[in-house]
Amino acid sequence: MSVEATVEAPANIAFIKYWGAADLERAIPLNPSISMTLRRCVSRTTVRLIDEGRADEVFLVGEAGDLQPCTGSFRSRVVAQLERLRLWSGTRNGFCVATRNSFPAAAGMASSASGFAALTVAVVHALGKPTSAAELSELARLSGSGSASRSVMGGYVEWPTEADPDSCRATQLAPESHWDLRDVVALVQRDPKTVSSLEGHVRAPTSPHFARRQELLSARLDVVREAIRERCLERLGPVLELDAIELHLVAMSSVPAIFYWSPATLRVLERVRRLRQDGLEAWSTMDAGANVHVICTPQSEPQVAAALAATEGVHELVRDGVGAGPKLLTESLLPAAP
Ligand code: DP6
What we know:
Layout lengths: L3 E13 L4 E3 L4 E2 L3 E20 L4 E5 L5 E3 L2 H18 L3 E9 L10 H15 L6 H9 L14 E4 L11 E4 L7 E6 L9 H7 L6 H20 L3 H20 L10 H15 L4 E4 L6 E5 L4 H9 L6 E6 L5 E3 L9
Parallel strand pairs: 5-7
Antiparallel strand pairs: 1-4, 1-14, 2-3, 4-7, 4-8, 5-6, 8-9, 10-12, 10-13, 11-12
Helix pairs in contact: 1-2, 2-3, 5-6
This protein binds ligand DP6.
């Protein structure tokens, strides 16, 4: 019998963003971040132990369940993470990995956070070494995708900076049952982004607005924590929208400059402002890309979705919401072992 585990882990959307690293290689952030774990945007990953000394195998699973060998930089990042997890566990086994995303194909949505969270949790379970959510957060962070450290837990999650960089771990502020918030994602970009988040972290301190954002963040984080505690979107919304705009302000004023927005991004931002004038609670946020996540209540979600679907340049919507975090699945993405 083969020893394996299959895990589904979600993406997350940050209300206060990680942008700028104290140590990029180990994903130690310069500022704390707070996010909401999603439910429907997930990566599913099977990890099977293979013989000691055998090279790791990494596959992407196609629409029809077919396996495509994974190549390029994503493969290198996966193999580097497997090596870290080998060192952590003391095992000498190789790993066979198959992974797929639930996100619409070529939607330009970030998948590193869910992908590395799923990989990390699946390896730990395949090895029969389940560990605390805090340690999983640290192990996922070491993949280099800092936001993966927030995807190993559900609900509302804070990832702090730490005096001791060896324990820079996320904590759950509230479980998903605390507050039913929705995230309607307006997809306006099909291609992968041209400048990676990793490069964005490197360039961030070259912006004259970077240091000012860092100064403003402490008060902003307090508002977000309190708004989550009190389930108050009226307080949370303006702050999450402002922080996303400021991330992009920093990106656009970095050297060299990074422009993630497309004309359709601005049209969606404008549409969301008009929805608010009509009395709907809806607020925009963007990661390092052109797509817009609109955070809203379950009551406003149908109208938000209808308005975004009718906005020029929006080619697809993903209707998501707060989720419970990673879970173990019984069905494998790999064919039965011979
Ligand atoms: C803008 O270095 O975690 O999404 O690995 O591509 O997810 P990925 O990037 P990472 O930086 C995240 C940048 C961000 C803000 C955030 O999620 O905090």
